[in-house]
Amino acid sequence: MRAFITAIALLALASCATTSNSTDSIEISEGACYGTCPIYELSVSPDDHYQLNGERFTRINGYSEGDLSPGSFAQMADMLDNADFFSIPEDVTYNNPAICPGPPLSDMPSITITWTTRRGSHTVIWYQGCSNATMRDLRDGLRDAFGYERIVRPG
């Protein structure tokens, strides 16, 4: 009986265990403009696996998944860390004039970036018509790291 109870206790403890980066992820989505801007949602995990939902004007409309180049997630996480992503305001849009002094450019899509780590989760919404060098550099660097031209942008 003691062995049975011990086995049940160990099973219960094991079911609560998680790996250190099981919750880590980087999610990027870009919204519509008045033209043919790609509309998509992308999620990248620490093992460089991605899941992509291309809504419109993407290379593949609908769901797709695959593997990025080795080290892509780490490269993306380093970019976010170096930009002190957790300190960037959640709202980098024309609704926040302290961050987006006018006048913003019109007809630009928004990009939403969410970084989830053991420290927590932080989401930033950036209207790309707001001139913000940090967000522009993050967008460009993240796109390069996950292969935007290869997996998102229509060929």
What does this entry look like structurally?
- The N terminus is likely disordered.
- Strand 1 and strand 2 form a beta hairpin.
- This protein has a 7-stranded mixed sheet, with helices on one face.
- The protein is built from 4 helices and 7 strands.
- It has one domain: 2-Layer Sandwich (Mago nashi protein).
- The radius of gyration is 19 Å and the shape is globular.
- The chain is an alpha+beta fold.
- Helix 2 runs antiparallel to helix 3.
- 28% of the residues lie in helices and 28% in strands.
The assigned CATH architecture is 2-Layer Sandwich
Domains, number: 1
Percentage of residues in strands: 25-35%
- Compressed to H and E, one letter per element, the order equals HEEEEHEEEHH
Features:
155 residues; alpha+beta; Mago nashi protein; 7-stranded mixed beta sheet; 4 helices; 28% helix
What's the layout of helices and strands?
Layout (H helix, E strand, L loop, with lengths): L1 H15 L8 E6 L8 E6 L4 E8 L5 E6 L4 H11 L8 E2 L17 E8 L2 E8 L5 H14 L1 H4 L4
Parallel strand pairs: 5-7
Antiparallel strand pairs: 1-2, 1-6, 2-3, 3-4, 6-7
Outline of the structure:
This protein has 155 residues and is of the alpha+beta class.
